[in-house]
Design a protein that fits this description.
166 residues, 6 helices, single chain, Arp2/3 complex 21 kDa subunit ARPC3, mainly alpha
Length: 166
C-alpha cells in the first residue's frame, strides 16, 4: 500500500500539480503526504533515504537542482525529531503505525501535517529565493504554500483514508 501511495502521489505531482501555479507563486505539493504517512516503525535512516529519493525524483522531473531533495530531507528530519512524539497515544510506548487522520485524533494529525508542511515550505522557499532581499514576498509565499499543502493533505486524508476497523 505504501508503494502504491508513493507512486500515485509522485505521478500526480509530476504530471499535474507541477504545472499548477496559484497566483504565480504557489505550487501545490501533495507528494509530501507520502513521506508523512510512512510507517512510524520505519527506522530513521530509511526514512531519510526515502525522503531524499522522493525529493530527488521530483527535482529530476522539474529540472531544479536539489530544492525538493533538501526540503524533503529536512521534513523527514523534523518528523524524526517531533513527529513520532506527536503521534504517540496516551501510552508513550504505543505509537501509531501509519499516521493518518483516522489513526490519531484529528487535531493531532492536523498539527502534525501543519508542522511538516511548514518545514517543507520554509526550506523550499528559502532555497528558491536564496536571498532575504524580498523577504516579505518570500514569507507570504511560504505561508500560502504551507496552507495549500495542509489543505490538500487534509482533503486527501478525509476523502481517501479508510476508516479504522474495530
Amino acid at each position: 500500500m505504501n508503494i502504491f501511495r508513493f507512486v500515485a502521489l509522485m505521478v500526480l505531482q509530476v504530471l499535474m500539480l507541477n504545472y499548477v501555479y496559484l497566483g504565480g507563486y504557489v505550487v501545490p505539493f501533495i507528494y509530501i503526504l507520502a513521506i508523512m504517512m510512512l510507517p512510524t516503525r520505519l527506522g530513521n535512516i530509511p526514512l531519510l533515504l526515502i525522503a531524499f529519493v522522493s525529493g530527488g525524483l521530483i527535482d529530476l522531473f522539474c529540472n531544479i537542482p536539489g530544492f525538493h531533495t533538501f526540503s524533503c530531507t529536512m521534513m523527514a528530519f523534523f518528523r524524526i525529531l517531533f513527529g513520532n512524539k506527536m503521534l504517540t497515544r496516551d501510552d508513550p510506548t504505543e505509537v501509531v503505525d501509519v499516521p493518518s487522520v483516522r489513526s490519531v485524533p484529528f487535531e493531532v494529525f492536523a498539527v502534525y501535517v501543519l508542522l511538516l508542511a511548514l518545514v517543507y515550505s520554509v526550506t523550499y522557499g528559502l532555497l528558491e529565493t536564496f536571498s532575504l532581499g524580498n523577504f516579505g514576498m518570500t514569507a507570504i509565499s511560504m505561508v500560502v504554500n504551507t496552507a495549500v499543502a495542509w489543505i490538500l493533505v487534509m482533503l486527501c486524508q478525509l476523502l481517501i483514508s479508510p476508516k479504522n476497523k474495530n
